[in-house]
Amino acid sequence: MLPVGRRAILYLGARGALGLLAGGGLLGSFMGCVKAPGTARDQLIFISEEKEIAMGVSAFRQVLRGSPLSGNPEINEMVHRVGRRIADAARKPEYHWEFAVIQDDRTINAFALPGGKVAVFTGLLKYTQNEAGLATVMGHEVAHALQRHGAERYSRGILEQIAQIGAMAGAATGAIDPSVMQGVQSAYGVGVSLPFNRKQESEADYIGLQLMAQAGYDPREAVPFWERMSGCPRQFIGKLCFRSQAVVPEFLSTHPSDVTRINQIEAWIPDAMRFYRPSDIPVAPPPPPRPPYRPEIGPMPQTG
Fold first, then answer.
1. Whole-number pLDDT of residue 48
2. Which of 107, 143, 283, 298 could be disulfide-bonded to 207 (CB atoms 3.0-4.6 Å)?
3. Domain boundaries, the chain
């Protein structure tokens, strides 16, 4: 959801990926092209799910060792209750789901790591305000884990490092003009890496809506949550008031703009409502499969 936490954690170890590759440590785990669950989007993933989960568990333990945990029983009970219902909807029993509340009122964030390790910072709760708001966030974060977005970024990071090393070697030998190399790297970041990250965020929004609906939370509550996160009424978002990161042009951001995100969610709500049942029936059966998601033709299909 926000750059603090999950993104930094999931990128741990990527800097040393080339060394591991050179030593053959990851060669046996290479998977290649796979289909993203729930959207059938093509993914390039060079690491096995087992290895990804092991990295997620290790990172989660590291975060918890260095973070103060909330001792508030009501908050912990609410996070665990919402988390368990989202986890049931995720239908991933091989993930050993764990939920933690980190006592940090200044950090407005949550994250989910591979293997079902989920943490919520207390600073987020003033924006969630209720269980449906919390389910919006936890559904989004769990969707990141289900869609293997961390492994996808890890794999892309490997390719980017290989390309950068090759480009630097070419510049050092005079085969490539250094100014041309800088231009290409800059264009790659704006034209490929950032839109790729925004695509993952939108995918997590879409899958997250369905998870919260299947867990018995009204997906229509996602819109007021994101309005609260924007810091201003819907009709003024991006016009008369901004949160700090909203002033960054969307094409230079790793996240969709507030307006784009809310518009997308509103377009996807009718689809998510097909999953929604009152909270006394927490998990609804999935509807029949639909064609794979194609961004150019409209909303994503259901998770299936």
1. 82
2. 143
3. 6-284
